[in-house]
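Extended Data, panel c. Modelled sequence:
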Amino acid sequence: MWMYPSTLAVMDSALEKGNCKSRSEFLEQAALFYAGYLSGEDACDYLPPALVSALRGTLQDSENRTARLLFKLAVEVSIMMNVLASELEINESDLEKLRARCVREVKRTNGSVSFQEAVRYQKGVD
């Protein structure tokens, strides 16, 4: 294999940093790295550790924030359901039919439901 002298110099200066004992070992690691990079199977192995750490931190923060917001939303929905249940008289059969309809609606709209649509349904407009 032939290489420019400048490339060999760069490789020689990086041998220690790459924990390599020889040029052959360095070239093998470089070839495996490049092949993995091209295949893109595990991009984390080919990104700088600081970038991977920053990305993981950002994702973890986002996940924590989403979990806190979902918890708060669930509490508010639970309060609303209890207030409504204390004032309304609805039988089990009607409740089950409404639950089934709501599940279908949420699936159909991918979770994008509106209060206006619920009012129209309850008034028999839909």
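The two ends are 75 Å apart (CA to CA). This feature is highlighted in the accompanying rendering.
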